[in-house]
Amino acid sequence: MPLSYDDSQRLKELYDVCRDHQHQMLGYPVSSDFDYHELWPFLQFAINNVGDWGEVSNYPLNSFAFEGDVIEYFCQLFHSDTDRSWGYVTNGGTEGNMYGCYLAREGFPDGVVYFSKDTHYSVMKIVRFLNIEYCEVASQANGELDYDALEAALNANPTKAPIIFANLGTTMLGAIDDLAQIQQRLQYAGFERDEYYLHADAAFHGLIIPYVDNPPQYSFADGIDSISVSGHKMLGSPIPCGIVLALKEHVDRVSHNIEYIAAADKTLTGSRNGLTPLFLWKFIRSSTEQEKRQRIQRCLALAEKTVQVLNDHKLPAWRNLNSNIVVVPKPSEQIWRKHYLAVAGDVAHIIVAPQTVSDDSRLTQVIDDLVSDKAKEEMAS
Ligand SMILES: Cc1ncc(COP(=O)(O)O)c(C=O)c1O
What we know:
alpha/beta, Aspartate Aminotransferase, domain 1, 3-stranded antiparallel beta sheet, 15% strand, globular, binds pyridoxal-5'-phosphate
């Protein structure tokens, strides 16, 4: 039965909202420079990637081969390979973080999850779901973990295995925790390498850090056990998604053969999206590594320029190194709502994504509004 006129109108209204706002949300980590029209025909199929993409499923409508290509790309990006690591396409960063913590807990049932105060709010949900002990550690002013506070917390709990939830780019300030520092503090606290687990939350910056000059440590070669990246953030996808990678020795602990699907089950969910691997695959395949690097470098350059322009207007904007998140003093509610800026405490942020590089008119408006908002505030005080 076709939709009624009213229902069609409702869909049209939603379509108009999406079209008008697609490139305008400057406060949220979303790249919208994608064109996936070649994949539209796949929307007519009941694709389902249930199980492990590396096996032959008894459910033929799957995109396993493409998911495998995606995982291989991320393995290379994070200096591993499919012999040593396994991963899958998730529903987003939160699922990947939960998977990392799940693997950690299976290895260390009495472990304690350590994370900084600036960590994404999903971590609390995850430790509650998994019933893992946790310890929130102070952050530095730039949002990076306070390593002295971490060491003190580790020393206070010497008998329980640390599960470190490190940020490779925090949500609000784009701060990157220093893996070398973390490992050093673990060593100072008396933990050997096989006595702790290191998970990296790289939801947004996971697609940025590999493409910067002189990147900080972020990979399996630097000692991580697992990493989670969102696909709909810096990469860009119309459906939320992500990837998680972990060392095979950890994944093997949770793998079970399931007769019903004639495959091994290693994932958190049962049925899995078969379309999102195609979006990720298309992104990976339709530009060279050099072009991916340029895409990131352009965002970082415009973020730096934005900081400079705001500073020239005496607004104390700043950004962390290797981050396209521009942090500004929180403006009036009228301004942060008008431009969909994310706010926390006394700051707001602007995210410079590829669509803003292509058309910076909205960014220019935001800058103008921040400057006049500050002038108004000064006049009033
Ligand atoms: C640092 C960080 N971790 C995790 C998440 C959660 O990711 P998702 O929304 O893809 O589940 C976010 C989302 O903004 C984030 O910024």
